[in-house]
Amino acid sequence: MKIAVVILNWNGKELLAQFLPKVLAFSKDAHIYVADNASADDSIDYVKTNFPEITIIQNVENGGYAKGYNDALPQVEEEIFCLLNSDIEVTENWLAPIRSEFESNSETAIIQPKILDFKQKTHFEYAGAAGGFIDKYGYPYCRGRIFHTLEEDNGQYNDATEIFWASGACLFIRKHVFNELNGFDSAFFAHQEEIDLCWRAFNKGYKAMYISESVVYHVGGATLDSTNPRKTYLNFRNSLCMLAKNLPKGKLIPIIFSRLVLDGIAAIQFLTKLQFKHFIAILKAHFHFYARLPKMVKKRGNSQKKQYFGQKSIVYSYFIKGKKQYADLS
User: Fold this and answer.
1) Domains of the chain, with CATH numbers?
2) Residues 239-248: tens digit of each pLDDT
3) What is the pTM of this model?
């Protein structure tokens, strides 16, 4: 089974210089691509000069994560796509257990490895950790990471298990499934587009898996860190759009209404902390969601499963009940 490792790049010469050598060293059986989102630096010339074995895909514009991969992946022929952030350090034999899972289980469509923190390698990393879930209001969390609480990796998630969503930092997907889903929703630009993709796959009966035998280390925040209001805006806007597209019909209106209230509380918290830019970011996210709502509803598939993985409210469990780790959740 052939795997294509596709690294999306935008002005990331330093990251490519730092992390490409291990990708090449530990991915001997894979075809490595760098898909460039119209970079203004000399990163592509650097790759061509120093890593001539890598195939370059040149996108005509910076369409963000979602459109960047949508534009690039039609040029990739391999059966399995690995969408790999440029700030990921891979480890020896990281591809072997992934390939084994795909070859052994035809119902597995999407896989995420164990994602640890490059800056603190004993701990899980924010973007994906040991596999993702969402609560009934669409708030994402992970085994090993709930909100900003990161667990130490003590082997508690050394398993292979079904998850609801896989992190876009390192996401494996069968080519035919990606094509069947028409790829990412490019309107998301960046953030939570992978959850939307996984939810649409789930509604079609496909399975996402976490495979702990494959380990990578993620720097995180290389594009937008958590203090950037742009990230707040994208997360809140895209989360609402994802709900409008994927929630079962009977739950659509009550859950989105509840989310509007919960997001309002989050906005007030930013205001009380004098974080005015984040407060404004949530307001903008909501106004832009209202404008996009008719289009999001039109994108709904023919069926939405009534049951999906997750807590009733991760916000309540974390902030009210004080359950900070995944094992504490019921």
Assistant:
1) 3-218 (3.90.550.60), 229-319 (no CATH)
2) 999 999 999 8
3) 0.93
